[in-house]
Structure to design on (712 residues):
């Protein structure tokens, strides 16, 4: 593997000095880009795009050709694991993900295999290897997976949900069944992320998209505990470099201290948290990633720049901040506005690292 | 007006000693009750039910006839105000509320009248008077309104929204227009709640259902600032009694200190906050209301009781807690489970007020 030409992102995650704040965007390879829509049309549908290492590589690199981003993120989906467990993932137009089967009993959980990544999710590992080769050391590649709780919600509900009624009913009526499912998922996610790391992912992020739907105590028991198991089981050093782990619980702003205690290197923040207060709360335990409201990209470029300045100033001096949106970029954003956002970070953040 | 036979709810909101923790449920007059469904069927639809003072009174009292609740809440909807401003509220089956018109420009805002409550929302005031008469002092009656930001989201979007794209686009492209709208709404909500108080509401709650969708700084500027205006303008004493004000921002658990500084008497908490930690954070500034996950009502009664015990113990000794769910009761809940919840609060909470 070639040397890394830009390691700003990895350094910031480890709170090592950097010349400016690194920046990337969740869902940066996505529908707001016309070139993405073209590749997706060529693939036929989302599943085919995601399952083709060559096309997944192509869309992963697209935003890097447009913007001075400091990281690439594997183009994939968090639901690859339940699909590899045999649930039959499919997408209905305008309806989001669906599963052919649901998991609602101990027998359902017992029947689930733990996927072998290179065998059952080979297309993901091939995508990681292809992207690393094509990146040729420009920026690091981020691998990712969904959190066990987040994956479980889709598996129990059979798809997306507004209130997680089925998953929460399982939680309060048959907690042992849910724990068994989460245990299997923690094991699956751990080996999946480790395989991504061995294939070339230089940092990994765990997306706990639905942890914020839980009560304070249920979050600890049904989401964080299993992310902790994953953190404990991950390869933390590969190819002579630390592989940072980022935990992102959307809606988890009240639980940052507990998240920081897992031993993760960094926490992702959604836009509801004040970055400066969050930094005070977690101290030097973790780096922070985030957290502009993605809706701010609908603003005129001057307003976007103002918001970037505000967030940089809220974090303050020194390393340990990776600039990002607080959630994925919206498909209706004008790519020029995404450019203005990234440019503002590049231009304005150097002042916060003056001591280097 | 007759003397109040049970003032436990009002006393707890003012952190005055009580014999046990008072309890009520958000949306306690609702679809989970067969008697509610019968009255609604009789009315024809939700709008007719809400606009009939007699039927609104009937459904308001239904849960009190089943359960030993410590408060009644006016049966109504937060969208009465935009409807009275001429937007044309209607409900599509399974689709939630919709407006015939939207508000997206300064001209749209300028055209909005400030409703005169007794004239333009007379059906609500008549419902309050009817309910007070029929309650005959059993328990206090809670009046309510939506927060300006929450109402604005519906008015700008034209109905419910998942991501508030139109409302947030207005916020970041034409903030002055949104501020003008919020200012009119704050004025309208203030006079609406004051009219409810004069008609007989003995406490009022402001529902900021969508404040949690805002960034930390946008929350202060676009939601809390206008709730502050309302709190400043409310009648705080009527008929020789303090009229407590409860602020409830769903998803606002990170902002409790700021909310407590408004001068409200109490804060509603959703289930993501730990009640004990919240109490430490707000100190003696406000009482706290909440916060069991409504999904817990899908659990067997023994599990519900355990959760009630956990939450009571988290708050600890002394007054200042009103037990409630962290959000409205789900329509699929078995009424017997709601009964088990209320019974558990009644039976277990006395121990936390032993010093009386």
């Amino acid at each position: 593997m070639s040397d890394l030409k830009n390691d700003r992102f990895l350094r910031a995650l480890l709170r090592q000095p950097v010349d400016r704040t690194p920046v990337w965007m969740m869902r940066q390879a996505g529908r707001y880009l016309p070139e993405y829509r073209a590749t997706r049309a060529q693939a036929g549908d989302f599943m085919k795009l995601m399952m083709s290492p060559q096309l997944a590589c192509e869309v992963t690199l697209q935003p890097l050709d447009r913007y001075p981003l400091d990281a690439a993120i594997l183009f994939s989906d968090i639901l690859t694991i339940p699909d590899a467990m045999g649930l039959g993932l499919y997408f209905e137009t305008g309806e989001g993900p669906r599963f052919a089967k649901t998991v609602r009993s101990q027998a359902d959980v017992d029947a689930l295999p733990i996927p072998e990544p290179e065998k059952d999710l080979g297309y993901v590992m091939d995508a990681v290897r292809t992207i690393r080769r094509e990146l040729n050391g420009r920026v690091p590649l981020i691998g990712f997976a969904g959190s066990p709780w987040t994956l479980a919600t889709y598996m129990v509900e059979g798809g997306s949900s507004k209130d997680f009624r089925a998953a929460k009913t399982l939680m309060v009526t048959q907690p042992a069944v849910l724990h068994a499912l989460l245990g299997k998922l923690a094991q699956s996610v751990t080996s999946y992320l480790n395989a991504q790391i061995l294939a070339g992912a230089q940092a990994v992020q765990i997306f706990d998209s639905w942890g914020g739907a839980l009560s304070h105590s249920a979050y600890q028991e049904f989401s964080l505990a299993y992310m902790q198991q994953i953190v404990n089981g991950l390869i933390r050093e590969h190819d002579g470099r630390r592989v940072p782990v980022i935990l992102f619980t959307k809606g988890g702003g009240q639980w940052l201290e507990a998240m920081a205690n897992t031993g993760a290197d960094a926490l992702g923040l959604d836009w509801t948290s004040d970055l400066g207060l969050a930094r005070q709360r977690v101290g030097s335990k973790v780096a922070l990633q985030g957290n502009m409201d993605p809706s701010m990209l609908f603003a005129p470029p001057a307003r976007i720049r103002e918001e970037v300045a505000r967030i940089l100033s809220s974090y303050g001096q020194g390393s340990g901040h990776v600039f990002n949106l607080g959630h994925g970029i919206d498909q209706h954003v004008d790519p020029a506005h995404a450019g203005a956002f990234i440019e503002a970070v590049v231009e304005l953040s150097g002042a916060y690292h003056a001591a280097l």
Remarks:
- The mean pLDDT of chain B is 97.
- The longest helix of chain B spans residues 175-199.
- Chain B touches chain A through 35 residues (CB under 8 Å).
- Residues 12 and 320 of chain B are 5 Å apart (CA to CA).
